[in-house]
């Protein structure tokens, strides 16, 4: 009996275009298009751990040094597991770990979102607009001699443009180093983060970058099924808004009837009188 083929490791599967789309989709929806409020993170250490894992897997793929001064999730503190094991961490240790995690996440969020992503997506949507205008004007008038070509669309891969993106840095980009045993060692966490994001995006088609028609957040289209919304919830909310706008009376009557029906329904768990002994 022939042996089953072993699946390649996750990292190998994710090296291709489809894998990079999925990684970018996660990074965009869970980090780059989400506001990061330090107070919210302070109150939720679990979220800090989740976002750290997201950056390690989706962006760096594990290629970041825990000793990098830009990557501080309590790395400069004594390892609490060596001293406390399964016991709860003392409040002062947990507070210090949380503070380091918040500082690191806010730093990388500002670096990647404000410094690069917000500029890139504006450029990409500008290019998409140019392509649409080019397509709309390529066939001429619908009644003219080129009317039979009115539906012809110029594929995006025929479009060429050379440009540049200037990083918007709120502060100087520092590259820390240490001297150990007479040798110099550089840590490039911040620089590597930008390169990692560029490498993740490089080579992907520009038409997978979509703006949600509901909330206007950017999302990445990862399948052949065309989407206009970042989530089903956004699509449902948009549908309700459109129903209110186009048929306010019908929308109002529908919901009146719906709530009347709900009110008329008996409760699922009716109280049963207890029998006397």
Name the descriptors.
single chain, 277 residues, mainly alpha, two-stranded antiparallel ribbon, 4 strands, 50% helix, 5% strand, disordered N terminus
Would you mind describing this structure in some detail?
- The chain is mainly alpha-helical and about 280 residues long.
- It has one domain.
- Helix content is about 50%, strand content about 5%.
- The protein contains nine helices and four strands.
- It has helices at about 10-15, 15-30, 40, 45-60, 80-85, 90-140, 190-200, 230-245, 250-265, and strands at about 175-180, 185, 210, 220.
- The strands form two sheets. The protein has a two-stranded antiparallel ribbon with strand order 1-2. Strands 3-4 form a two-stranded antiparallel sheet.
- The termini are far apart.
Give the termini separation: 69 Å
Show unreliable segments: 1-13, 144-154
Tell me the major beta sheet. 2 strands, antiparallel
Radius of gyration: 27 Å
Count the domains.
1
The number of helical elements comes to 9
Name the strands of the widest sheet in spatial order.
Answer: 1-2
Helix fraction? Answer: 40-55%
Percent of residues in beta strands: 5-15%
Q: How many DSSP E strands?
A: 4
> Can you give the mean pLDDT?
77
Shape: flat
């Amino acid at each position: 009996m022939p042996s089953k083929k072993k699946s390649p490791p996750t990292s190998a599967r994710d090296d291709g275009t489809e894998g990079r789309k999925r990684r970018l989709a996660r990074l965009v929806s869970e980090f780059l298009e989400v506001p990061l409020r330090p107070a919210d993170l302070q109150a939720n250490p679990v979220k800090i751990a989740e976002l750290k894992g997201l950056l390690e897997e989706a962006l760096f793929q594990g290629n970041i040094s825990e000793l990098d001064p830009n990557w501080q999730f309590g790395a400069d503190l004594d390892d609490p597991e060596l001293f406390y094991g399964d016991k709860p961490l003392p409040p002062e240790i947990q507070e210090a770990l949380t503070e380091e995690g918040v500082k690191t996440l806010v730093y990388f969020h500002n670096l990647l979102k404000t410094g690069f992503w917000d500029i890139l997506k504006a450029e990409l949507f500008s290019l998409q607009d140019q392509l649409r205008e080019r397509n709309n004007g390529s066939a001429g008038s619908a009644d003219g001699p080129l009317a039979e070509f009115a539906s012809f669309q110029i594929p995006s891969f025929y479009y060429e443009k050379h440009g540049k993106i200037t990083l918007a840095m709120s502060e100087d980009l520092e590259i820390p180093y240490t001297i150990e045993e007479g040798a110099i060692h550089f840590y490039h966490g911040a620089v590597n983060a930008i390169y990692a994001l560029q490498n993740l995006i490089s080579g992907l088609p520009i038409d997978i970058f979509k703006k949600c028609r509901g909330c206007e957040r950017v999302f990445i289209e990862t399948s052949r099924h065309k989407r206009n919304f970042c989530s089903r919830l956004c699509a449902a909310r948009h549908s309700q808004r459109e129903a209110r706008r186009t048929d306010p009376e019908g929308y109002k009557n529908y919901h009146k009837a719906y709530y009347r029906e709900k009110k008329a329904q008996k409760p699922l768990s009716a109280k049963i009188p207890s029998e006397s002994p």
